[in-house]
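Continuing the batch. This is chain 6 of the set; chains 1 through 5 are on the previous pages. Same settings as before, nothing changed between runs. Recording input and output for traceability.
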Amino acid sequence: MSSRFAVLACAVAVFAAGCQSAATPASPQPTWYGAAKGVYARNCIACHKPGGAGPIDFTSYDAAKAALPTALADIASGRMPPWMPDPNCRHYQEERLILPADVTILQAWQAVGAPLGDPSEEPAPATQTAGDGLAATPDQQLQMKEPYTPSTAANDDYRCFLLGDALPAELFMTASDVLPGANGLVHHVLIFMVFPEEAGALQALDDADAGPGYTCFGGPGVAPTQTIAAWVPGATPQIMNPDSAVRLPKGARLVMQVHYNLQGHTLAPDQSTLRMWLRPTAPQFMVRAMPVADLGLHIAAGDAHAQAELVTTNTGATPWVIVSAAGHMHRLGTEIKVVSLAASGTQTCLMDLPKWDFNWQQFYRFRTGEEVRVQPGEQVKMTCTWDNSASHQPIINGVQGVPKDVWWGESTSDEMCLSYLSIVEPYQPYVPTSADACKTFDGCFTNCQGDFATCILQCAKAAGNVCQRCVISGLMQCTAEPPPGVPGCGPQSQGIVNCLNACAAKGTGTQACVLADCLSDLTDWSSCAKPVIAAGACDVQQKACGISLAPTN
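Output for chain 6:
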C-alpha cells in the first residue's frame, strides 16, 4: 500500500462529513488562531472534543500543542486515524484523508514553537449545510426504552436493544442518523432490521437477559437481517439518492447494537436514539445489503498468513448495481479485499482494507456515478487474510491468548470472512415468508425416502421458490453458527452453498445437477447438521419458515 496522509485520530463514519479544502496559513509564521486551529477543526474535533471518543481535546490550544509531536508521528506512520481503505483501490464519498497542505501547516507551526497568535487572525467559520435538503426534524425517533450502564466485566461491551415495536406499516427510509447518549463510551452503533418472520424470536432473547437489552456480538442473534444504519465518531446523516430508499417491511423489528468501549472513559448510562426520515410512497429503487460470506474458513494455529478466497457468481437475470461495500472479520484479521471480475477479464476493486482494525468498521459509499455493475454470469471475489501467530493473539483481561485452530463463528474467539455489498435495484413489495409458503414441506419430508439433506432440498424446491430460499439459506446459516458449546458446520454449509451456486450458474437442470454433483457435499452436511438441528440451533429458522424437521431419516 502506498504511503498516505490520514486525519489525526478521528474515525471516518459510515456517513461522515466530507473533507473541506485545506486553508492557506494566514501569515508566513503560522499560529494557533491563524492556521493550526483550522486544521484540527477540519480533520479532528469530530472525535477529539470534550466528551468525544478521542482521548485528547483538540479544541484546546494547550492540549493540541502538547500532543503535536505525537500527532505528527501518527500521521506519518499511517496509524491514525482508522480510515482503513487503500486509496489505490478507489476513493469513496466523505472520506477524510488529511491533505498534504494541512500537514505542512502543522509541521510549520511546530517548527516555530507552536505559537498561540491573536484571536483576530482566526478565519470566519465555514457555513455548514445539512445537505440534500434534509429536514431538520426527522419523521420518526426511536430511543432505547431505558438507560443502560455498560458492564465493566471487560473493556468492550456489545449490547443489543429493541427499538419500538413491530412496524405497523411498511416504511421507506430516505435518511437516517444515530445520536449516541453517552458519546465518550459509545464506540460505534449498528442498526439491524430483522425481517417479520424472525422478529418474534427477539423478545425471547431480550427477556432471557437481565437488565436493558441483551448481550450480542456480530449481530442481533437471529438471521437473516439487514444492516440499515450506523454511527461512528464524526458521523453525519446517511442520505439516499432522491429516487432510492431502504424498504422496512410491515412487521419487521429494529435492533440497535451498541459497542461500548470503557478504556479511558468514565462509566455513565447511555440511551441512544435512531432518527429516520421517511417518504410517503414507495421509491423507484430500493437499497439492500447483500452479504458475501465464507462459512468454510479454517485458520490453523500458528499460521501467520492464513488466507481464504471466495468467488460469488451473479446467477440472476439482472445486474448487481453495487453502491457501497463493507467488510467484517474478528481479532485475527489483517486484510480483507473485494473485487469484481468482468467477463472481459477486467478486475475492478470495490474495497481493500490492508490494515484491518476490528474496532473501526463501516460502510464505504462509492462516489456518485462510480457504481459497479456485475452482470449476470460475472463474479465478485473476496479475499481474507489472518494472522494466527502467537504474537498476534488478542489480550483479554490482561492475558494474551494462545494460538488454536479457528473456524467460522459468532464468538470473539471465532473468525469471519464477510463483506456486505449495498445493491440498488427496482423497488418490489415485500413478500413475507409464512407457514403457508412451506405448507407442503412437512408432509413431503415425513414421507421422503432419501437422505436427510437430499429430502430437505427436494421438499423445499417442491414447495416453491419462497420456501426454498427460506429453508436452504436459513439452515445453512443456523448450522454454521450454532449456540456456544455446539460444534458448527461452517465448512459443510459452505460446500453446499458453493455447489448450489455452481449448479445455478449452469442455468439448466439445476435439480439434476445437485443430485449428480453435490452428493458428497450433501452427505458431509447431513452428518454434521443432524445433531446441530437436534440440539435446537435451528428452531428459530424452522419456525420462521413454518417447517418441522425430525432428523431421524
